[in-house]
Predict the structure.
Amino acid sequence: MLELILEDPHRVLDETFEHLAQRAGSSVPTVLRTCRDLGYAGLREFKLALAQDLALRDSPLNRRVRITDDARQVIDKISRGAAAVVHGVQAQLSPEAVQAAADALVKAGRVDCYGVGITSNFMAMDLHARLFRLGVVSNTYLDPHVQLISASTTDRRSVVMAITHVGGMPSLLEAVDVARSRGATIIALTQRSSPLARMADILLAIEVAPDPVMPVGPESYLAHLTVIEILTVLIAQRLGDKAAQRLAHIQHMLATRGVDMHPHHTLGTGPSAVARKRRRVARARRNVRRMKNGAG
């Protein structure tokens, strides 16, 4: 196993216990014992330490890409890395936790989505938009002051969905603490070892290796977005025909009246269906008058 790690450490980061044991001609318990012999609780902890070490001594651009790599190598390495991160969600995400989260979101009288930082803010807005389309009463609050106000107005029927990779921002933890004191259910999408994780009623725990450039890199974004997509599908399943009909109605409205029509007119400048009908009626009337005048 140690020889495989030295030979291609980046590949080891993307592998499961089973894949690594198979390549090493060993077993999963042996891999686990090796990690423990090196001073780590398990493969996940070993991988995080390995990723941190690689981030410090590898390219400052991406933990898989070297400065000398050409375009084909960059495409290959980043694409394989992204696929590995999404696949890693399957290995990490607890089915029981994600089912509990979907149930809580469907039953909630109100869902408030909190984010912190650029990436998590986008995730919170994306989840809010999905819930809104499904018919779940939801809001998204990104400003720490407004998050605190939101938390102070929650109750036992409320759900607070807090999304943050790092999970240690004091302002967010304060808002979550207030919501907990009001009886709201706290769902956290964060790292298992974060302060936010310890405050959650339902924890969606996802670990992503550190990024050498960004405090929260694109791989965290991909992992969290995958979890949100899983949640969305589970919620839609629970809502059933009601959600399906609502989504179909929204899609129809966008296709016939929105700027997403194919083909579509620029908003505010193109002829509406009503205007086109009026022109057709006026043209028909003119033709009728011409026919009458000709007959006369």
About this structure: The longest strand covers residues 110-115. The CA atoms of residues 10 and 161 lie 33 Å apart.
